[in-house]
Design goal:
about 350 residues; 12 helices
């Protein structure tokens, strides 16, 4: 390997060490960094409409307060309208669970009696016992988490107040921050850095904006469908479908299970309608909704997608399964760039 290539390799090695050290530092000071990350995310979401407003000649001192006003008013009305309904339906659903288990037990007992050959059989009591035991453990864990949340309310309130203030300064001084970061690089590296930053920004924005919109559309359609069919708790079940849609392949299947189980306790006909409706919704999502909103711009192979979703879920739970896709896309993009620069030919490496 020539001297120029060795220098490039050492530069990338130093950069990787620096990034890893920064990640370790972030983990160590996470309680302090959290409001800053929330502020960055908030600024990231507000930045596109802010650019459009400033392009129309509206001063940033006017456009930012207007955007914040509409954002918080919208969030307030969404929370005031939906949260009480969701909590009420969740409370009714938990109260209805014993009846659901009893109905399922009767259904499977009848199935076992009609299944004279004995090729297929269910010991539903063992299933119920396992579910109840698991629910007891989860309820105890959630009770502990709720208690911890109550004690951390002052910190949550501080973050709620601090994050918008920090995001305001991030947005107001975004060009100065960008110029400061770019000034740390050599003049020859700046165009390439800006290009890579633009590609990473594109991937992350596609996920945050596109997939959240898709999940919202799926949740609304599912809620309306459940309500038309006449199944109980349509808002909660529709919300589950929207959240599950954020997890490719596995999420929609898991999110559809509660609706199917509830339909089984009502009638076989309604169960068939629910299953057909969910399948049609997934077809509509994959063939119409997702291509119209974001297309195939994340660019991961299905096998890669399944692997990163399973790995993210194994390491960090539901949040890991949801955010594994954009993280993997960004890492693959950076690995391609680094490998392309390290193993490039002498002509490509020379200035």
């Amino acid at each position: 390997m020539h001297i120029l290539a060795k220098r490039k390799l050492w530069r990338y090695a130093v950069a990787i060490v620096f990034v890893l050290a920064a990640i370790v530092l972030l983990v160590k000071v996470w309680p302090i960094i959290s409001p800053f990350l929330i502020a960055i995310l908030l600024a990231y979401l507000i930045n596109p409409p802010l650019k459009k407003m400033t392009a129309l000649g509206i001063p940033i001192g006017v456009s930012l307060p207007v955007l914040y006003f509409y954002l918080f008013v919208g969030l307030y009305f969404i929370l005031v309208i939906t949260v009480p309904l969701i909590l009420e339906q969740l409370r009714n659903l938990f109260a209805y669970l014993p009846e659901v288990f009893q109905s399922l037990s009767s259904f499977l007992d009848s199935f076992n009696q009609q299944n004279a050959s004995g090729l297929i059989s269910f010991d539903f009591q063992k299933i119920v016992d396992g579910i109840v035991a698991g629910m007891d453990d989860r309820i105890a864990a959630y009770s502990t988490k709720i208690a911890d949340l109550v004690f951390s309310l002052p910190q949550v309130l501080l973050y709620t107040v601090l994050a918008p203030i920090l995001s305001y300064y991030f947005l107001r001084d975004r060009e100065n921050i960008k110029n400061r970061i770019v000034s740390l690089l050599s003049p020859s590296a700046r165009p390439e850095f800006l290009r890579m930053a633009g590609e990473v920004n594109h991937l992350v924005r596609e996920f945050i904006s596109g997939y959240l919109v898709i999940a919202l559309v799926v949740a609304v359609i599912a809620t309306i469908f459940y309500w038309i069919v006449g199944i109980d708790y349509p808002l909660v079940l529709g919300l589950l479908m929207g959240i599950g849609d954020l997890i490719p392949y596995f999420g929609p299947i898991i999110a559809a299970i509660p609706a199917v189980l509830l339909a089984i306790t009502v009638s076989p006909g309604k169960t068939i309608i629910i299953i057909i409706g969910i399948l049609l919704l997934q077809q509509l999502d994959s063939s119409v909704i997702t291509p119209r909103i974001i297309g195939d711009r994340i660019g991961l192979h299905p096998v890669t997608t399944i692997f990163v979703v399973m790995a993210g879920g194994y390491l960090w739970g539901i949040a890991g399964a949801i955010f594994a896709i954009p993280l993997a896309a960004v890492l693959i993009l950076l690995c391609k760039y680094v490998s392309g620069r390290v193993f490039a030919s002498d002509q490509e490496l020379s200035p």
